[in-house]
Specification:
Blueprint (H helix, E strand, L loop, with lengths): L6 H31 L7 H27 L1 H12 L4 H13 L3 H10 L5 H11 L10 H4 L5 H8 L5 H10 L6 H13 L4 H14 L5 H4 L8 H10 L6 H9 L6 H18 L4 H5 L4
Helix pairs in contact: 1-2, 2-3, 3-4, 3-5, 5-6, 6-9, 8-9, 9-11, 10-11, 11-13, 13-15, 14-15
Length: about 290
């Protein structure tokens, strides 16, 4: 999925980075405690037991941390988002790259949990990493759909004051084909049609579902003045098993705008590939 480094090597590089960080923190705390214990008689058995306990405890904590990173995607994801990605922009890019190339149910579950975090920065990062695959690089539904409670969390996140969180939730809701979800997306699309990125994500989400009741709301956007919104609407016409969709796309083939024309050509081709080619007469007839 776009990774230039072998997946196994990438995983071990991130694990090694986290382990070294935990080790450095342990060494620092150990030295601090040793300085405090110098006021005691180091030959004292109690002091010796304290040092031994500290060393064994540190080793156990490091082992637990390492195992958690290795076998628990949700734990690994939360640690990376809450403590690593916030260090600086470079670490944020590293975390994003790792999460992009290592999608899993546990990861999606952890990121969805953090959409409701009290810290707005955590919510922003969770939304950023949850949606780090653009709409043109869809997630495998097998990774998303089995995540327990995900749809409920996304419906709550749609109301977030942070735009990044809200639009990510809108886009992700496109994986859930239900009347309630379609109604919610249509309501949000109508209320936020003036926000380009919100509008595009809602249109893409509705297209992924492909419910024919959404087509009437999407078609007007194929003539929108905003090129990004217009292109998204035209391309999603290929997702609706409705003759009106392909007719709308064919009507746009004569558009003087090259981007719109290209999107229309793509929509017509994908519509026929997906729903089967019909006769010229059937394609042009909307209703008898």
């Amino acid at each position: 999925m776009g990774a230039t480094r072998p997946e196994g090597l990438t995983r071990w590089l991130y694990l090694a980075t986290g382990l070294l960080g935990a080790l450095a923190a342990t060494v620092f705390l150990t030295r601090r405690l040793k300085r405090k214990l110098r006021v005691f008689d180091m030959s004292n058995s109690l002091s010796q037991r304290r040092i031994r306990f500290l060393k064994v405890g540190s080793a156990v904590l490091l082992l637990v941390y390492f195992l958690a990173l290795l076998v628990l995607p949700s734990c690994r994801t939360k640690i990376m988002v809450k403590y690593v990605a916030r260090i600086n922009d470079h670490m944020g890019v590293f975390v994003e790259t790792y999460l992009y190339t290592h999608r899993s149910r546990g990861q999606v579950h952890a990121l969805a949990d953090m959409l409701s975090d009290s810290n707005p920065q955590i919510r922003y990062l969770a939304a950023r990493f949850l949606g780090c695959t653009a709409p043109c690089h869809d997630l495998d539904p097998a990774v998303v759909l089995p995540v327990p409670g995900l749809q409920t969390k996304l419906r709550a996140a749609v109301k977030d004051d942070l735009l990044d969180v809200a639009i990510t939730a809108i886009w992700m809701l496109g994986y859930f084909d239900s009347e309630d979800t379609v109604d919610l997306l249509l309501t949000k699309l109508a209320a936020n049609a003036h926000i380009d990125i919100y509008c595009q994500n809602a249109i893409c989400a509705l297209g992924r579902i492909g419910n024919q009741k959404a087509l009437d709301a999407v078609v007007p956007f194929t003539r929108d003045e905003r090129s990004g919104v217009r292109e998204a609407a035209v391309r999603t016409l290929a997702c609706y098993n409705d003759l009106r969709a392909v007719q709308c796309a064919e009507n746009l083939l004569s558009s003087g705008n090259n981007i719109t024309k290209s999107a229309a050509e793509d929509a017509v081709r994908r519509w026929h590939d997906r729903f089967g080619r019909k006769s010229e007469r059937d394609v042009r007839v909307i209703e008898d």
